[in-house]
Structures are given as C-alpha cells and as structure tokens.
Specification:
By secondary structure, this protein is an alpha/beta fold. 55% of the residues lie in helices and 18% in strands. The strands form two sheets. Strands 9-8-7-6-2-3-1-10 form an eight-stranded mixed sheet. Strand 4 (66-68) and strand 5 form a beta hairpin. It starts with 5 loop residues before the first helix and ends with a helix.
Length: 333
C-alpha cells in the first residue's frame, strides 16, 4: 500500500523501525563476503520480523543474489526464485517472523530503489527499505529507514513516487546484548586503558553531536532562505529540544556550573601533579639503579683485570725459576 493522504503520511512518519544487532552483523558479513575492497557495489537482502503498526521490529535477515550495472543503475537483476526458496526454509525455523522489507548497503538512495521496492510488493504489502552503511564516515546510527509514498502536488500535476524517511533505532534483547558484549570484548584493543577508551567514546559522542547540530543548522538556513519548505513537525521537535536546555542567564545555575567545573578541574590538576611526581621519582630511581649497575660492572671488570695480572706475574716468576734451575744444572755438568 502506497501512502498518499495526509493521514497515511503522518501515520508512516510516526512509525519507528527497530533494527537488532544480529541484522547489522548479517548485513556486514554479507557485504564483506560479496564485495571486494575498494568497490562501490552494494548488496541486497530481505528483512524478517514483525510489523506492529507503529513499530517495525527487524529481527533477522538473509541476503539474495543481486547484480546491477554500475554505469546504468536502471539495469539490474534480482533472483526472486531464491527469495521463495529461502522464505520457505525460514518459515519452518521461526513462524513468527514475516518478510517486512528489504535492505541494501547504499550508502545512499539510488534510482533503481523504487523499482526494486515495487517488485517486492509481490511478497510484502508495506515493505520498509533500510539502508545500512557498512562503512560509516560519521559517528551515529548506521541505518536509514524509508517507506515508498506518492506525492500529490497542489497544482494538480501527476503524482510522483518517492521515499519517506522514518526514524530508526538499534535495540537488542538480553541474549543479543550478551553476544555483542562478548564480541566487543574479543575485538577490544588490549593496549588501550579503560580511561583512554572512555575518553575516546566521549570524543566520538561529541563528534556525533556536532554533526547533528550541523545538520540542524543547514536545515534552518535552507528554510530561512526559502530553499526548503517549513515542516511544522520538525519545528516542534526542535522547540522541545531547545526547551530542555538550561537557562544560563540564571546566576545560581551559572554559579553551580562553575563550582562543579572548578571541583572537577581541581581533581584533574592534583592528579596531574601526582602523576608528574611519580614519573620523576621513577626516573630518578631508574637512573640510580643504572648507576649502581654500572659501578658494580666496573668493579667486577677491575677485579678480573687484577686477577689476570696476578696470574701473569706468577707465570713469569715460574718461568724465571725454571730457567735458573736449568742454567745451574748446566754449570754443574
């Protein structure tokens, strides 16, 4: 069913697509096995799960054979017989999971997406398309979910098919959380400390926040200049987010922020001093131990030289005694 009316569009925009970690791992594995490094090709697959109306739960997936011409994106091939065979096998494993949509590794929308979506309507009444970015360049959720809609123009011209972006989220069940934790533990870099890891995660979060703020700024600039139409739903969300910000004009709040920051900076300053003192102590101790080792080594070398000298003197004395005995015997003869 293609959404056309305002009610259907608002219902679709309020729909949330929940993607499980198993799906992300399956898509990444599918892409790694099928696409060579450095290639811009994409892979396509089917999403399985439950469509609960306002929430679409994507719990599983499988890849399908797909080829397209890189020069002409409208030339493509998709094996729908393979979809039939795989769907029959998946039904026997878990009857609760239904085909709810499809995915590809984009990382952006392409011209053939609408045709592929129309083909999959043979199996799914309301297919959701999820673009999974397997090589993300920015920090954030690597999924974008879309529904196919028809835009009805006010001037009465022909409707145009397009995709409506809907919010997506990453959620996991308890078993999946345990599996992801074990996976992260296996790939964790053992050379980094816990503090360094926490700082890196906070830095990545700040970069993601900066990216989102940049998107909001560019959107507002486009709306103010008339390049984009005003979306009241986005304006309401932005107003709600701005209302959550603290009032920095309040002196008590500013003073409390400053006090907290000063306390935290004091702890950081004392920690830096202690770290510097410990490093200097370790440096002095290391130098002293190296000096003692060098002194002991020089003493041992001198003793060895003295021992060699004493042995040489004894040898020379022995040779002189033997020569004197030989000369006295010769005289006696």
């Amino acid at each position: 069913m293609v959404a056309t009316t305002t009610e259907q569009l608002s219902a679709l925009s309020n729909t949330t697509v929940v993607v499980h970690p198993l799906v992300l791992l399956s898509v990444a594995d599918h892409h790694a096995r099928s696409v060579p490094r450095g290639s811009s090709k994409r892979v396509v697959g089917i999403l399985l799960g439950q469509d609960n109306g306002t929430t679409i739960n994507v719990a599983n997936s499988f890849g399908i054979p797909f080829e397209e011409d890189e020069k002409d994106t409208k030339t493509w091939f998709l094996d729908h017989n393979y979809i039939d065979g795989m769907w029959e096998m998946f039904k026997k494993v878990n009857a609760r999971e239904r085909m709810i949509g499809w995915y590809h590794t984009g990382p952006k929308l392409r011209a053939s997406d609408q045709e592929i979506n129309d083909l999959l309507k043979r199996y799914i009444a309301r297919p959701v398309m999820v673009i999974v970015d397997v090589r993300p360049q920015t920090v954030g959720i690597p999924t974008d979910a879309y529904f196919a809609v028809e835009e009805i123009k006010d001037d009465g011209t022909e409707t145009r098919k397009t995709f409506l972006h809907v919010p997506s989220a990453i959620e996991a069940e308890e078993a999946e959380e345990i599996g992801v934790e074990h996976l992260l533990r296996d790939i964790k870099d053992s050379t980094t400390t816990t503090l360094a890891t926490r700082v890196a995660e906070q830095l990545a979060s700040l970069r993601g926040l900066q990216s989102r703020l940049g998107d909001i700024q560019s959107y507002l600039v486009d709306v103010a200049s008339g390049k984009m139409p005003l979306n009241h739903q986005i304006s309401y969300h932005l107003q709600d987010a701005l209302n959550l910000l603290p009032d920095l004009n309040d002196q008590e709040l500013t003073q409390s922020f400053a006090t907290t920051t000063n306390d935290e900076m004091l702890v950081v300053y004392l920690s830096s001093l202690l770290r510097a003192v410990i490093a200097l102590h370790a440096l002095v101790d290391n130098k002293a131990s190296i000096g003692r080792a060098e002194l002991e080594e020089s003493k041992s070398e001198k003793e060895k030289e003295k021992g060699k000298g004493a042995k040489g003197d004894e040898k020379e004395k022995g040779e002189k005694d033997s020569s004197s005995k030989t000369s006295s015997e010769d005289k006696g003869l």
